[in-house]
Amino acid sequence: MPESTIPVAGTSDDELMLVITREFQVPIRAVWSALTDPEQAPAWWGPRGFHTPRESIDADLEIGGLYRACMIQDATGQQYWWSGVHTDIEPPNLFVFTHAWDKADGTRGFETEVTFQLEEIDGGTRMTFMQGPFDTAENRDANGTGWRESFDRLAEHLRRGVGSNPTGATA
Length: 171
Fold this sequence. Notes:
Elements: E1 3-5, E2 18-24, H1 28-36, E3 50-51, E4 58-59, E5 66-73, E6 79-90, E7 94-101, E8 112-121, E9 124-132, H2 137-160
Antiparallel strand pairs: 1-2, 2-9, 3-5, 4-5, 5-6, 6-7, 7-8, 8-9
């Protein structure tokens, strides 16, 4: 599956951005649905070795709407909660939200902005994912590893066609 990652180094905001581009051989509305439908999220959210139970996902899919979810490490049962606010939603092309890992004391960690841009291409959909700026290059790179594995799982989910909704309607 085609992927490009913009390598960045240093400490400016631009250099602390994570950008990943993927192409999927499915209609744009199927990708949009997988990104925004909480029923499909457990099939692909999180890197390999982690899962996100549907019952942990609380999402209000509207601008200003809050979301929260928990990713669980399979080997240890360790929980990783994250949350944010949906800041721009333009079906089926643009999905933007804030993202922060929740700390054990209930406070939020460093916040980034996540953007999914979808565009129709011959035979499918190009997804451009952006997140940042991060506080450190190490955090950017660690998140990049997790997202790449999640997007591998997303591609598998889309190939199976499980739960894809050609109308783009969300739950």
